[in-house]
Amino acid sequence: MEKHLSIFIDESGDYGFINDASKYYIFSFVIHEQKDNLNQYYNIIKDMDIFHAGPLIRKEDEYLFVQREERKKIFHKFFLFAIGLPLRFKSFIYYKEYYKEEKIFKFLERDVLEFLNKYHDYFKDFDIVIYYDKGQILLSQVLKNAFDSSCLKYEFKQGVKAYNYRLFQVADLVSTIKLIEIKLQNNELSKSELDFSARKYWKKVYINGINKKSL
């Protein structure tokens, strides 16, 4: 009997090096064995709109007129949903000052391949489906090259849109919290992030919660 594994991937920041580019680049895997039915978990957030972690924290886009306490409730509810799921997370984090633009590609590919090789005995038992919206060409190529080199059985799901998949939104949450973790370590939290939650609460609840499920 074939076993299927889904990997949902989302990123935070960009891999560019122009003046207004992000300081960090992060992308995260959300790993789901499809034998684990998630319908009972989805009922918890069935009335929730599409979740966007960054805009929710910064009071942007669809959350522009949503007050802080309500935004915090939305964030916390989705966080509890995410960490309650039978999933594992893996994040790849890059402080771009350490890299040159023409070389960051090879480090991303190297790190993804090292992760796949580390858990190769686990992954090889599955037919893997990668859910990525291909929003960044470089990351799409990184994923393809690394999975090709791993010799694992995989395919890309076509036509992926974040609003169609709650697990894609979980990947967005994971990447956002991992970004906050590195910013917290470097005392770089923005005013909106500090207004949204205290440093101790970010670490004790959200960062530790995500890390407990991370590979």
What would the CATH topology be? Nucleotidyltransferase, domain 5
Run of helices and strands: EEHHHEHHEHEHHH
Shape: globular
Overall number of structural domains:
1
Largest sheet: 5 strands, mixed
What is the number of E strands?
Answer: 5
Helix share bin: 40-55%
Number of distinct helices? 9
Structural commentary:
The protein has helices at 39-42, 53-58, 68-84, 104-118, 120-123, 137-150, 166-185, 191-196, 199-211, and strands at 4-12, 24-33, 88-95, 127-131, 154-156. The model has no long low-confidence stretch (mean pLDDT 92). It has a 5-stranded mixed β-sheet. By secondary structure, the chain is α/β, with parallel strands linked by helices. It has one domain: Nucleotidyltransferase, domain 5.
Write the layout of secondary structure elements.
Blueprint lengths: L3 E9 L11 E10 L5 H4 L10 H6 L9 H17 L3 E8 L8 H15 L1 H4 L3 E5 L5 H14 L3 E3 L9 H20 L5 H6 L2 H13 L4
Parallel strand pairs: 1-4, 4-5
Antiparallel strand pairs: 1-2, 2-3
Helix pairs in contact: 4-6, 7-9
Q: What would a concise description of this structure say?
A:
With 215 residues, the chain is an alpha/beta fold. 46% of the residues lie in helices and 16% in strands.
Keywords:
five-stranded mixed beta sheet; globular; single chain; alpha/beta; 215 residues; Nucleotidyltransferase, domain 5; 5 strands
